[in-house]
Amino acid sequence: MKSVITADIINYSGLTSRQGDLVLGRVHALFDTLGSLRNNMDDRFSIRRGDNIQMELSVPGEALRVALLLRSAINSIVPGHRQGKRIPTLQVRIAIGIGGVTAERSSVDESAGEAYTLSGRLLDRMKENKRYLAIRTGDENINRELDTECRLLEVILSNWQVSSAEVIYWTLLGYTEKKTAEKLGISQPAVNQRKKNAGWFAIEGMLERFEELTDILGKKSKK
């Protein structure tokens, strides 16, 4: 059992050439970082047409964390301004499919299986329903729980400012508040406050529950 993340960067075509290069550079940097920090992540991913991203993870329990890393990385690029706040002008739509992979090939573009099918079809439905984060598995009971949790998580993420995304990005990578403060050039209390404003403690609970659910799926798949 594996997980497949399929994502598209919304309004990517409206970026300038410089902004587009900045986005692609950030995405590649993220995956390079994940490859060096996590030995349980499949190193295969693709970026097509600049705005479509697909990645396969060998440990499904990592999928939500990686999805949020991608979201926070994208949200911290090309900020806009409204009422004195720096807000993300770029959003990313992310679909996670969890299941078997029956055709393992050298390129994720050519691989196939339940996880790929669930992820791809889910992303298409999300575009119609204006959703930004969703997860599908082969278990309908787990799907119902995850759908409720993802809808709540979407509300939290919709209130992020650029400063929220920056702090969550480094927190998801396992940085302490002190180390994050050094990275961003702010105080540790400021990091703590931004984490609270970004809903980190609810996000952390969701990550833990997601890992539990993927463990349950993994045990079921082995029976």
Keywords:
223 residues, alpha+beta, Alpha-Beta Plaits, 5-stranded mixed sheet, two-stranded antiparallel sheet, 8 helices
Architecture overview:
The protein has 223 residues and is an alpha+beta fold. The chain has a single domain (2-221), classed as Reverse transcriptase/Diguanylate cyclase domain (Alpha-Beta Plaits), CATH 3.30.70. 54% of the residues lie in helices and 18% in strands. It is built from eight helices and seven strands; from the N terminus they run E-H-E-E-H-E-E-E-H-E-H-H-H-H-H. It has helices at 17-37, 63-75, 114-129, 140-158, 162-172, 177-184, 188-197, 200-221; strands at residues 2-10, 45-48, 52-57, 79-82, 85-88, 91-99, 133-136. Strands 2-3-1-6-7 form a five-stranded mixed β-sheet, sandwiched between helices. Strand 6 (91-99), helix 3 (114-129) and strand 7 (133-136) form a beta-alpha-beta unit. Helix 4 runs antiparallel to helix 8. The radius of gyration is 17 Å and the shape is globular.
How would the blueprint of this fold be written?
Elements lengths: L1 E9 L6 H21 L7 E4 L3 E6 L5 H13 L3 E4 L2 E4 L2 E9 L14 H16 L3 E4 L3 H19 L3 H11 L4 H8 L3 H10 L2 H22 L2
Parallel strand pairs: 6-7
Antiparallel strand pairs: 1-3, 1-6, 2-3, 4-5
Helix pairs in contact: 1-2, 2-5, 4-8, 5-7, 6-7
